[in-house]
């Protein structure tokens, strides 16, 4: 499958490399073509990898991943172009983190709105699925690094899109993908970051996740 | 032990009853003595139970529990009286939930502050331990209702107070009580409510919790 990855940071690198390893053709998009980090990634990721602008990646991909910093995501996606993303699934991995007050970060939007919803409102013809934002990038692409059962929470408005994303996540090794609801649930999965950053500080490893344990309602 | 419980709602009832069953003397505090719900609780909970004003409960208790609605907690605790709470442990169970915009509720304070911190700042001579706010009241007092391993996250500034609260929680049946850090971590455990309310909507049962799974750092 042809996949466009927006963002050249650690998350874009990890997901882009995993997708290329799985046999997908992956184009990493940045503000300008020839971005140094994107070129370095292409050289490391092999013949399935290429790079270009956000718009190049959006046009190339049948499936798209937003791996930009949350505070820059809307601008990056505007540069990618609504027309180039129309009708496609966008996996939104970003969290609207604000590091300007120091550590741990706060959220630039939370409680009664979310980045996932902002993106879905700005790009109504794109099927936004919020996923992978609740775990660190090593865990995203290798959930077996965390021992035992644990869950990936996803949400979005389009059931078919969530089903396709779930299939892709299974190829990463995710056994339990929980569809928690529509895109407004991103208020919950992004809000969870307020706890995630504290658990990270406490556990002193990014290799953790949560398992939701519950009584089964029949 | 003599315990003061602030609040006459479902949480105060559940915790007050459990504490009385465990042999503690429990006084439930309300805005005025003779509150109908408090009197009904006393009649149901037996000879270990009594009721009075917030100040009565604060004076009575060697240990205190804030089970008032989050939006009303600071006013209730002011009525209880800083002097009556000085030097004592206050388990803050409340979440600053705002139901005025409908369901699911939002938080009146979150992200860069928390109710737990507001209470600690307002009552510096009281040892605030945030605990039990991440699970529904049936689970608070009977964690075995949720199958398998799952964790209770607590935080607060005073290590000795957290240790005493952990011992009390073990008598409720809590096997894993995780001390995540100082009272600022309440931003995380209260912020988690943004996810909790969505999981509640999805799972259709309040009988759930999370288990934090992680690599052990040596």
Give a description of the structure.
Two copies of one chain form a homodimer. The first copy, chain A, is of the alpha/beta class and 218 residues long. Chain A has a single domain (2-203), classed as Rossmann fold (3-Layer(aba) Sandwich). Chain A contains ten helices and eleven strands. Chain A has helices at residues 10-21, 36-45, 54-60, 73-80, 82-85, 115-122, 137-141, 159-172, 186-191, 193-203; strands at residues 2-6, 25-30, 49-53, 63-66, 89-92, 97-98, 106-107, 127-130, 152-156, 177-181, 208-214. An eight-stranded mixed β-sheet of chain A has the order 3-2-1-4-5-8-9-10, with helices on both faces. In chain A, strands 6-7 form a two-stranded antiparallel sheet. In chain A, helix 8 (159-172) links the parallel strand 9 (152-156) and strand 10 (177-181). Chain A is globular and about 50 Å long. The mean pLDDT of chain A is 97. Strand 11 of chain A pairs antiparallel with strand 11 of chain B.
